[in-house]
Amino acid sequence: MKSKSGKARAKAEKGLADAAAPQDKLKRKDYDAALAGLHAELVKLQQWVVHQGLKVCIVFEGRDGAGKGGTIKAITERVSPRVFRVVALPAPTDREKSQMYVQRYMQHFPAAGEVVIFDRSWYNRAGVERVMGFCTEDQVERFLAMAPGVEKAMVESGIILLKYWLEVTPEEQTRRLSARIDDGRKVWKLTPMDLKSYSRWYDYSRARDAMFAATDTELAPWYVARSDDKKRARLNIITHLLGRIPYEELPRETIELPKRQQPHDYREPDYPFKLIAEPY
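^ that's the sequence the OP posted. Answer follows.
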């Protein structure tokens, strides 16, 4: 017999499958309905993680424009930032460059009752750092040899580790990066580094292939999500994530708002509040 959460996940999966055929554009109302159901499941997962003291680490990797940020936002927009923490580290400082490579990431690993999401991770070394020449080939090879051991230690310590690669086609990447040029909301996403990276598509492909060959292990496999259709990719990833972390719906007490106290002798003050303008 399926648990309530299991039935809800199955329903969400069926809703996603029925919303539209793979070649059809997913309608906004179908996307919003499916996402709302998955958000409810993420809240149940959050409560279970806290209740059971689970430690969850989720890694998102992929080329620029693959949709990592939007996917992470879709996961986190209805849960508590105190439980679901997003880690997006800047370039390392000189001090951090002198440390063991994974050291600056390890301090962000989850404790009991936490879900930590890495928006790019220690795999920077196998991707952008390798392609852009920020490290030597010897450093890359040492990292690729070391990473499976570190991840084995993570999993054996009780961390649930999920690694996602978002795969975008060159045509869709071009469309998305071009759209950022004249969009005031997105122009900050298009950096000189992004432009250099864009020109090295096949260098990134070779780096990805080598990374998968070395670190796609039984204990910490890579899961690949096709992301040309951003809405479908988000729904598919959240559905997969929910299926990889066993959880149950915790019973809830019936909630009723208490009666509000009487004002007694309180009077609203005649105070010149500095109200903001209301152009809308």
